[in-house]
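quick one
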Amino acid sequence: MSLARLPRLGHGIGLRSEHFSEFLSGDVPVDWVEAISENFFLQGGRPRAVLEAVRQKLPVVLHGVSLSIGGPDPLDKQHLQQLRELARWVEPAWVSDHLCWGTHRGRYLHDLLPLPFTEESLAHVVARVGQVQDTLGRQILLENVSSYLTFSASTLTEWDFLAEVAARADCGILLDVNNVYVSARNHGFDAEAYLKAIPVDRVGQFHLAGYSDHGTHLLDTHDSPVTDPVWALYREAVRRFGPVTTLIEWDEHIPPLPRLLEESARARAVAEAAVREAA
Ligand SMILES: [Fe+2]
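structure w/ fe (ii) ion:
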């Protein structure tokens, strides 16, 4: 099996409440938008009305933050049903979430926590991805998270673990280029070697975002522009994977829409240059 060929949607931004009025009042010049699934679970209300209007004009992708695919608790059945209902209603180009855990004994920890990269956790994640894909009736994409610690129990590298999950669960990869860079700096591995270990045909989407530099470590804060080293890594990613659908993530200190569009336009320019270089 392999990842169903996903469309290349171009360059998009997140559908955030700060920009709802602009999305409602006119055409926002982006190729597509990413909606945080959980923000649109509630039927009726303003978020669904905005999403309804936007999906008439633009392709939509659903991105979840609390599936906790690697967590110790059983998957939350109510959450899965809400996600299925939303996906049926939105008809997104695809659905994604994170390769992490974020619940413990029924409590959401509001963090995307890294997993130990072992055969045991691999089997655990693969089985749960199967459960999610069966419920949704579609393949999902899983995103690499940034991390600040590693488990001494790990027997696999992060990149091999991610590639193995995708192969065994037959799902796709949302490659967050910023997260690769942040984790590479925090743990001292080679970010380009990470990219080279990820199978080209599994990557359906890229994320780009800003981090903050705390000297001893980088923090994945999504509150600032993409940095120069991440632009450079993105160029390498496009050279390897092609002009994959790309999102600028900006979740804190969200700027006015024109500034966000400027960042997305820069991603387009970098990607187009990389495609020319690779030709
Ligand atoms: Fe991301």
